[in-house]
Each structure stands twice: as structure tokens, then as C-alpha cells.
Amino acid sequence: MSKLLPIAVLLAAHVSAHAAITVEHLWSFSGDINDSVGSLNLTNGSAVTMNSETTAGRVTDGYASFPGTAQYQGLWQAAPTTTTILNDNYGVEFWIRLPDYATTTKYSLFLANKGNSALSIAYNDGGAGFAVSANNVDYIITNLGKLTDANWHSFAVVRDNGIMRAFLDGIELDYSANTYARILATNTDAFNVHLGCNGSGNNPLMGDMDEIRYFSFAPGAFETTDLYQVPETSTYALACGLLSLGGVWMVRRRRCLK
User: Which domain holds residue 8?
Assistant: First the structure.
């Protein structure tokens, strides 16, 4: 039975977080709208409120509510900074809840401007689900999955070794346009973040967001276990496989003892 210990250790290692990422910026909305890791503090444009609730699965109980009824109802930096933004091996992840999830109105969720570069994450532009774009030229990826209820969901975009990947509730979304060379240029131009609206204050979000984070990692080091939400089936399948392996080993051992 002692030889089953390595299997248990392997399973425990899989269940625990990979922890290969470095969080560069984090807006957790636990009482304020500041960047709790970096220096990209935000300004409340209009009517965005901080709320709290205990919801299974999310990291914190604080979240931001966006009314989505008028221009500039979002959050953004009061003044641009010279923070360096990576052009590869980074990710943007957040929790999102949309009461009107079936809407065809475009909601701007995350926008990072830096010089002539921009990374934009939006939802439901004409009913297309999540959409990611950079510079409106380098790539535009739409139909990245649609929400089917008004519950909390996690969404992530990861640029890993030149490959763009997107995840909804920890499950990687399938799309073909994922091999573009440039996302954001690394430079020292003025950098600005907008949450819940675009750079012109348009496409205001009607819904809730939480735990918005920008993270980096070493090339090839990212794993899906680094995300907020990982499909339970992956751990379950591994557990079943390892237990089956242990069962086979026990049967063989008994046969050898006969």
C-alpha cells in the first residue's frame, strides 16, 4: 500500500495551483477601485458602485457594478503612466456577471491603450459573444463563447509564446485565428486602462466585474491551473485515472504474492 503514496502525491500536486504567474496589476474592488498590486489606480467616471456578497467560486466578496446607461459610466486611470506592458507571455483575467446576458448591445469590458497599440476585450457585439482585438488590425477574434445565464463566470485571454488563447470558466475556447505576431508593443508611451467602457467612454457595461488581473509568466510556463476557475472534470479525470492505476498495481501485486 505504501507504493501508492507517490500516486497520492502526484494527485495533490495537480490539484494545487501551478503558481507560475506573476500578477502585475489587480483590481479586486474590495472597498475601493485601486490597483492593489501595481500603480494603475482608477477614477470612477460615473455611477459605478462597490458592492459585496459571498458567492461560491469567486476570489473575493467585493465587486464593481456598472449601470451601463450613459457614456463614461466606467473606470479608468486619471492620468496615463509609463508602465511597460508586455507584448507576449501575459494574460488578462476577470469575473463577469451580466443580468442581460442575451443582449446584442456591445459592452466594453477591458481596454489597454499604449501608444498605437491597444488590447480590447468586449462582449456581445451584435450577439457574437466575447471578442478580443488588438489595434483592430493585428487580429479580431469574435464568437468566443456566449453566456447562457446571469451567474458569475470567469473569462481569460492569454498570450503564450506567440499563441493567443481564450478561456471561459476555465475551458479553452476553440477558434482558428490565434497565431498573430503582435499584441501590444513594449514601449514607454503613455499607457491607460479602461474598465467597463472604451477609451471614448462608449459601450458602457451593464453588469458586474470582479478580480480583474493582468499577469505575466515565463515563456511556456503558463498552465490552465493558473486560472481562477479550472474545469473540475480535469482533476476528476486525473483522479480516476490514478486510482485505476493504483487498482491495477494492487491486482498485479496480489497475483505476484500467490
Answer: 1-19+233-258
